[in-house]
Design goal:
- It contains 5 helices and no strands.
- By secondary structure, the protein is mainly alpha-helical.
- Helix 3 runs antiparallel to helix 4.
- It starts with 8 loop residues before the first helix and ends with a helix.
Length: 125
């Protein structure tokens, strides 16, 4: 019966893992301040009236996320059209920035549609 050599585990461990995407270096302090500021805005908004509008806020978050997910193929196409390729270093970064901006814009406008109707937006005559 022939003997076989065991697999070389060092050959597997020596490989480097390619990063999924690249992001510019940002100071850990700035990142922590931004994260805390985001949570503070959520907490302040909760006590400023978000408790009464939880359903409307939840609706706008879910709707904007779904719209962004469904429109992602066009956002990817637009990124490749603007930059020439999504394989560049800046391609995924630009695409994520556009998707975040689009999601935030849709969420704010969906919330405005639900909370403020056209009649309420105009002053009474």
């Amino acid at each position: 019966m022939p003997t076989t050599a065991p697999n070389d585990s060092l050959g597997q461990a020596a490989r480097t893992v390619e990063p999924i995407m690249w992001w510019p270096e940002i100071s850990d302090t700035i990142t922590l301040v931004a994260l805390i500021l985001g949570f503070l805005i959520i907490v302040i908004a909760y006590f400023a009236g978000a408790r009464e509008n939880n359903n409307k806020i939840f609706f706008s978050i879910i709707l904007s996320t779904a719209i962004t997910l469904l429109s992602m193929p066009l956002l990817i196409y637009a990124t490749s059209w603007v930059l020439g390729s999504t394989q560049s270093r800046w391609g995924p970064l630009f695409m994520i920035f556009v998707a975040i901006l689009f999601t935030a814009t849709v969420a704010v406008h969906a919330y405005e549609i639900v909370v403020v109707s056209a009649r309420e937006a105009r002053p009474p005559e």
